[in-house]
Amino acid sequence: MNPFFILNWKSYPASQEDILPLCAALADWRARVTSGTVVMCPPATLIDDTQKCVAADERLASVLIGAQYLDADAKTGGLTPAMLRAANVSAAIIGHSDRRAQAGETNADVRSAWQQAIAHDILPIVCVGQPAPDGSFAGLREQVLGAFEGASATDVAQCVIAYEPVWAISTTPGARVEESADIVRAIQVIREELRGATPKAILYGGSVTGASVSNVLSSGAVDGVLVGRASASPDSLTELHEALTPFFS
Ligand code: PEP
User: Fold this and answer.
1) 13 by DSSP, 3-state: which?
2) What is the pLDDT of residues 165-188, one digit of tens each?
């Protein structure tokens, strides 16, 4: 397996000073562990500073820089694929639940965004997840069907899908990592709704920490993790690295 580790720093780092220790922790880990795909997704204002960290440390040479969202069309505050490519960004989180809830992103927006990402050689990391625990996974099915309506198997093969149950994301009060059995079932649901198409990878995201990541990856259902809060502080990032190492060796 080619495991994925996506670091979604959200808006936790505010300045270059905040990202330097994160880049240093990641560089120490990548000096020991070189396999897999690692994507750092800084806030848009820190993309340039993150690029500088990567350029200054060859241990980070294999690490990709990703955006936290991508807009298919030009708009105030937008981040278009052309802007991202010009900033040497090579991946983008698309359809994160924060963007769906706060920026009103719809499945149609998500669809346009991953299509545009592919057209600009940007790796789309498409987030899907039901808003509340739901045994029928109806909300998840609706998002997968909507986000990939009309997609060919070739399109889907170029996308990473991140399963992120909204209630498990750490900024939700009472959030906790989803049970392994439920993750396994949700990934089956995603595969069912993709009707035979196979994405580049399927990841889990939602309250993953160094303490829980082995359990998530040992389920065997996912190809990696998308981590928010725990990836954005040097201590919790280092704990994550230790727990991720066996899966990246
Ligand atoms: C996220 O926001 O994509 C996420 C997975 O966050 P956290 O790990 O903090 O739950």
Assistant:
1) coil
2) 999 999 998 899 999 999 999 999
CA distances from 186 to 33, 165, 218, 221, 249 (A): 29, 9, 15, 9, 27
The per-residue DSSP string of 60-101 comes to: GTTPEEEES---SS--TT---HHHHHHTT--EEEES-HHHHH
Nearest CA to ligand 1 atom 3: 228
Query: So which residues are the catalytic ones?
Result: 96, 164
One-letter amino acid at 244 equals L
**pTM for the predicted model, two decimal places:** 0.97
Pocket of ligand 1 from Cβ distances under 6 Å: 8, 96, 164, 169-170, 205-208, 226-230
Burial grade of 152 (CB within 10 A; 0-12, 13-18, 19 or more)? exposed
